[in-house]
Amino acid sequence: MPDTTLTIDELTQLVTRIFLNAGVTPAQAGPVAQVIVAGERDGCKSHGVYRIEGCLRTLAAGKVQGQAQPVLQQDEGAIIRVDAGGGFSPGAFDLGAPLLARRAQDLGIAALVINNCTHFSALWPEIEALCDHGVAALAMCPSYSTVAPSGGNAPLLGTNPFAFGWPRPDKLPYVFDFATSVAARGEIELHRRAGTPLPEGWAIDRDGQPTTDPQEALDGAMLPFGGHKGSAISTMIELLGGAMIGDLTSRETLDYLGTTDYLPHHGELLIALSPERFSAGRPGDPFARAETLFKAISGQGARLPSQRRFAAREVSQRDGITLSGEEMARLTRLLDDPRV
């Protein structure tokens, strides 16, 4: 089957229909599809249509509730809580994000706690959505135990992604989003599918020995980035995005699922901040000062994070998203039969 090029809207509609056919409510199917397509649009294959089968497999196992309706718990404080009801996280985020941004603008800082959700996606779509409201934002969540702590020899921590965004007037925001493991688990799986070895320093096998074999890495453990520094940040995320918000840590998630074959079930913490409120009464415009910093970074020839994603997005918006014949055949099959 030859390669196929679709517009962003066409691919979004196709992915949405796959989830609708699998029994997912429109309130969940649309947000999930938008996040998956964002991965393809931005050239991040490990977060694109590759994620669909994992979502469907988790649905079929009853580990995520496709009919769940997220519930927003209203209050007047700085903490906003959405119970995802066991459903996917994007629908819960869409429900709570507008209130989070407004509360941050009113109070200077606010937090959105998403509980009882299945999280499978990148964090940058959420961060960018909050930046579109004019607030800076942080997001984090545990995963399931696939990463050994620095100096350890067995999986305990999750890949535990962490993201930050700063709004830029009339420009795409400054955004970074990375796993606290050396690489996302999806990258290991893509190497396994392609039959290519991993870079050295990514993983250890079941015996705690270094390995470049993707299957041995999946059976063993990944490593944190930056040694003890990445390990400490990952532990912080376990505490803030798990224990503090009354949800599962990565070890508890793995105990709940019993396997890494399904998508992780846990919570998520997002924090939004108003630069105007924090800088009130002080000299200078925080956004103008940020632009001075960004210009100085670029002036040294350094690349701001997300620039490659934004460049890929520009191409996708102009030329569409090209899927391989194998990818398109898989989507066509899932559209007719969502069983995996």
Automatic annotation (TrEMBL):
It comes from the Bacteria. InterPro entries: Mal/L-sulf/L-lact_DH-like_ah, Mal/L-sulf/L-lact_DH-like_NADP, Mal/L-sulfo/L-lacto_DH-like_sf, Malate/L-lactate_DH-like. One of its GO terms (molecular function) is oxidoreductase activity. This is Oxidoreductase. The lineage of its organism: Bacteria, Pseudomonadati, Pseudomonadota, Alphaproteobacteria, Rhodobacterales. Transmembrane segments: none annotated. Belongs to the LDH2/MDH2 oxidoreductase family. SUPFAM superfamilies: L-sulfolactate dehydrogenase-like. Pfam families: Ldh_2. Gene3D superfamilies: 1.10.1530.10, Hypothetical oxidoreductase yiak, domain 2. Keywords: Oxidoreductase.
